[in-house]
TrEMBL record:
<dbReference type="Pfam" id="PF16344">
    <property type="entry name" value="FecR_C"/>
</dbReference>
<feature type="domain" description="Protein FecR C-terminal">
    <location>
        <begin position="272"/>
        <end position="339"/>
    </location>
</feature>
<dbReference type="InterPro" id="IPR032508">
    <property type="entry name" value="FecR_C"/>
</dbReference>
<keyword id="KW-1133">Transmembrane helix</keyword>
<dbReference type="InterPro" id="IPR012373">
    <property type="entry name" value="Ferrdict_sens_TM"/>
</dbReference>
<feature type="transmembrane region" description="Helical">
    <location>
        <begin position="69"/>
        <end position="90"/>
    </location>
</feature>
<keyword id="KW-0812">Transmembrane</keyword>
<feature type="domain" description="FecR protein">
    <location>
        <begin position="119"/>
        <end position="210"/>
    </location>
</feature>
<dbReference type="GO" id="GO:0016989">
    <property type="term" value="F:sigma factor antagonist activity"/>
</dbReference>
<keyword id="KW-0472">Membrane</keyword>
<protein>
    <submittedName>
        <fullName>FecR family protein</fullName>
    </submittedName>
</protein>
<dbReference type="Pfam" id="PF04773">
    <property type="entry name" value="FecR"/>
</dbReference>
<dbReference type="InterPro" id="IPR006860">
    <property type="entry name" value="FecR"/>
</dbReference>
Length: 345
């Protein structure tokens, strides 16, 4: 690379017009730097560049007669010197550790800029991520994340099972990579479990909305190519089936009340006190409380009246009592509950 080309590359990088390969090259150079090193002044930077290029020209004239190990040591030194020169001309936002994943990640970037945390205890381990998000790592599970998230996305890798409570950032989606599945959110809480074999991955949403998709072999963080996927809301879960490359959606094992922002617990409890309430009213309250669609298959059920206090029971216990009172039964089909029967006697 000539000196003019060197300056041109830096200019394109600052302006965001360089190619993907050029961007990777510059960022890999930058990954070799010490993140605590102070920036240089413009005169200091120009002097260092001149010294660097003079040394390169001198070495190029001698490399024919030098042994291979000398050339390799000079190449390493040149890259490091070039990195110091880059420090003074890169934009301020670039002077943070860069999350370089998979094929783009150098060994130095992996050891200096990433945290790998494994829970070797017998209890859940609570961790706080760089953006303020919180997670609980179950025993035997492992999480990997950068010390500093990128400005346009937040990416972690999970092996095992963890609960995430994500700080909402509209311009910086949060991505969880687990096996063949990527989970994408803006700000919500959910579980991710890659199963004992790392294949039957399951995502369960507690609050908010989550996008779950299958990864392609060419996928890279921040620029995913989605093969197929589903959207989950509170109290829904999806299991990835590797044999069919598809997702199976259903309701979580124990649905929780989706408490509206600002709502009081006492108000939510009182909404489950029924006295001669028509079935349509009962169903409407349950749907609003849990965010789950409940369908009456028989119009005759709509005329039934229901009287009971159901403040503390789980959703499925409430449904058991409701169906017993109106001579009906229910079943879960996908992410919906269907109630059928001849109706009240």
């Amino acid at each position: 690379m000539s000196k003019d080309n060197f300056h041109t590359l830096l200019s394109r990088y600052r302006n965001g017009t360089c190619s993907t390969h050029e961007k990777q090259l510059v960022e890999q150079w930058f990954a070799l730097l010490d993140a605590d090193m102070p920036p240089m002044s413009k005169p200091e930077n120009e002097a260092l560049e001149e010294k660097l290029w003079s040394a390169i020209q001198s070495r190029q004239q001698q490399q024919v007669i030098r042994p291979h190990w000398v050339k390799w040591s000079w190449a390493a030194a040149a890259i490091i010197l070039l990195g110091f020169a880059l420090w003074g001309v890169l934009p301020k936002s670039a002077k943070q550790p860069i999350a370089l994943w998979d094929g783009l990640k150098t060994q130095a970037a992996s050891s200096e800029n990433h945290v790998i945390q494994t829970n070797t205890t017998t209890a859940n381990l609570e961790l706080k991520l760089p953006d303020g998000s919180r997670l609980e790592l179950t025993p035997g599970s492992q999480i990997e994340y950068p010390k500093f998230f990128a400005k346009d996305h937040r990416t972690v890798k999970l092996k095992g099972k963890a609960f995430f409570d994500i700080t909402r950032m509209v311009q910086r989606p949060f991505l969880v990579y687990s096996g063949e599945v990527i989970t994408k959110v803006l700000g919500t809480s959910f579980w991710v479990d890659d199963g004992p074999d790392g294949q039957s991955i399951e995502v369960a949403v507690v609050t908010g909305k989550v996008s779950v998709s299958q990864l392609t072999k060419t996928v890279q963080p921040g620029s995913e190519k989605i093969k197929n996927g589903v959207i989950l809301t509170a109290n829904q879960r999806a299991r990835f089936l590797p044999e069919s490359h598809s997702f199976e959606m259903t309701i979580v094992e124990n649905p929780l009340i989706v408490k509206p922002e600002g709502a009081r617990s006492s108000a939510m409890t009182s909404s489950f006190l029924f006295e001669d309430a028509p079935m349509t009213e009962v169903i409407d309250r349950l749907e609003q409380a849990y965010g789950i669609e409940i369908i009456l298959e028989n119009e005759a059920l709509e005329k039934c009246l229901f009287t009971a206090a159901l403040p503390d029971q789980t959703l499925f216990t409430k449904l058991d009592l409701l169906c017993a009172a109106v001579n009906a039964r229910y079943e879960v089909r996908g992410t919906r509950v269907l109630i059928s029967g001849r109706g009240c006697l």
